Description:
Elements: H1 2-16, H2 41-48, E1 57-58, E2 81-86, H3 88-94, E3 109-113, E4 121-123, H4 140-143, E5 144-145, E6 148-149, E7 160-168, H5 169-172, E8 183-184, H6 186-196, E9 204-209, H7 219-222, E10 228-229, H8 231-239, E11 242-247, H9 262-269, E12 273-276, H10 281-285, E13 290-295, E14 305-307, E15 311-314
Amino acid sequence: MECLAAMLALNLATSACAEDKVGASAYGPADEVGALNVLTDSTRLAVLQRIASGKIYDLSVESFPGMPGLVHLGMGDPEYHHWMTHTPEGLAIEGLNPGDPQHPIGLYDDAIIMSVHTGTHIDALNHAGYGDQIYNGFKRSEHLGNKGWKVAGADRIPAIITRGVLIDVAGWKKLNVLPPSYEITPSDLEAALAAQGTSLQKGDAVFIRTGRMTLWPDPTTYVPHEPGIAQPGAAWLIEHGAVTMGADTIAFERLPIKGKAVHSFVFAERGVTIMENVWLEDLASDRCYEFVLFAAPIKLRGATGAPIRPFALPIKITSK
């Protein structure tokens, strides 16, 4: 009876996942970049020429022990750890100071341990897939070693210089923060953009403000049951031009997940990267809804994600 129940559950799972298929890249079977292929020398030059001022918005958060992280989702990932490995006193006692004994170096070194999905970071296309495959049909059985993926890792993500768009959903609803587990629908996105007088274009980096950063850095309120988009909202953004997306939340999508996971959909099917834990409060305060985005991850070979420090500069608004 138990075997029969297990077989039935397996059949149901197979049926439910029949439509979950990885996408094939329009840029060929060797492509590991996905939607970011849209960004070229000419598109970068065009957007750089639209910078309106030298004011810089830093869209990243600080990393520090005790900060919110995947550990607070109960996923077994390491907390952020930071400690000193060398101090002048310690080196003197150990007799390890590399300087001239007559001129010892006041040397300070440190180290960190962290998940690659800590703080403000970008998820690579190898972060989620379906079955044995990730985006563009790369198979886990062929490309995943004990030291990471051989394809589609954070090291493959190019520097991102493009037009950025903030969709302040919390601001549009006149809320400090959206309710727990609130699903941001395509209608919400459309209405918030209309209220801002903003529209999306092909090649945009789109950032959604839920207001969750007003709860940062308390992990007990920032992490659980976060609001965010579900698969329909992600599809709407991509159809309207987004080539990368981000939010002021730890997982970008609504938690708990219901239906098709946004992560699997955008990575495996559409080849679109995601940025998480993005600081959007200053942009929202200044109602800077359009900007030039500069962002580049650390080149961690084969990693499923990497720390990133995005910057935004105000853009010259063209007539619509």
